[in-house]
Amino acid sequence: MISGRYRLYGRNATGSAAVEAAFAEAGVDYDLVDVPRNAGEAAAAGYLAVNPRGQVPALVLPDGTAIAEGTAILLHIADAFPASRLAPPPGSFARAHHDRWLLFLQANIYEGELRRYYPDRYTADPVCTENVRAAAEDYVKRHYALFALMCTYGIELLSDNAEECRHNLAEVFNTFLGIDDNDEWAQAARAVLEGNIVQGDALTMTVPGGRPITFPELITG
Ligand SMILES: N[C@@H](CCC(=O)N[C@@H](CS)C(=O)NCC(=O)O)C(=O)O
Q1: Which of 3, 35, 164, 211 has the most beta carbons within 10 angstroms of its beta carbon?
Q2: How many C-beta neighbours within 10 Å does residue 41 have?
């Protein structure tokens, strides 16, 4: 049983924005505490008692305990307020796909953004800082591009149209990343497009053999 209020520790332009959005979607009242950007000031304000790692977001639950890690916080809000339909029900196949993407973003894109933002933390040699930052920027860009492609679906009645569509999208992907067909990311994009752009009839939602059209990542309902 949920009682009392949530207290979110966050800061403008950080990962706490997603938690604010989730609370707004769920229609949940909460208190918001602005954590100073300066680590010394945050520690002096007692923030390490909430999150010893010193990062935002952190959330004090109505039972008085605190959790950190934005992804864990978002999953908690989704599960605690199922009527908000922020995530599919726990244990469902749709939830498995949902969690996969949430973790994909957390592990690759958020972490990559941190390497861009704090490159000095990822090398012992200050001379390498700019290289770490540039590599992180490219890493984030590649993951965003693949993510965008995996969210793209298409049905074409004729097989040559479907192939042309895959080809065009692959070209857009390669141009965006400045890579050629031999790059392993170009090959990943091709594999995604094979599944996401299908030949079929959008009126009957079947492929030429009569089977229903399915997409590898798209879960409805
Ligand atoms: N793994 C944490 C990372 C949180 C994080 O890096 N927050 C940033 C703001 S977006 C922060 O507090 N940075 C300050 C620091 O690392 O010193 C999460 O997913 O919530």
Answers
A1: 35
A2: 11
CA of 69 to the centre of ligand 1 (A): 8
Region at 11 (left for phi over 0; alpha for psi -120 to 50; beta for the rest): beta
Ligand 1 in reach of 14 Cβ (< 6 A): yes
Q: CA of 187: how far to CAs of 25, 166, 193, in Å?
A: 38, 12, 10
Is 114 touching ligand 1 by the criterion CB < 6 Å? yes
**How far does the centroid of ligand 1 lie from the alpha carbon of residue 56, in Å?**
5
Residue nearest to atom 14 of ligand 1 (CA): 55
Q: What are 100-136's pLDDT values in tens digits?
A: 999 999 999 999 999 999 999 999 999 999 999 999 9
Phi and psi of 74, rounded to 5°? Answer: -65, -40
pLDDT (tens digit, 9 = 90+) per residue, 38-72? 999 999 999 999 999 999 999 999 999 999 999 99
Give pLDDT, residue 221.
47
Q: 10 in ligand 1 pocket by Cβ < 6 Å?
A: no
pTM of the model: 0.89
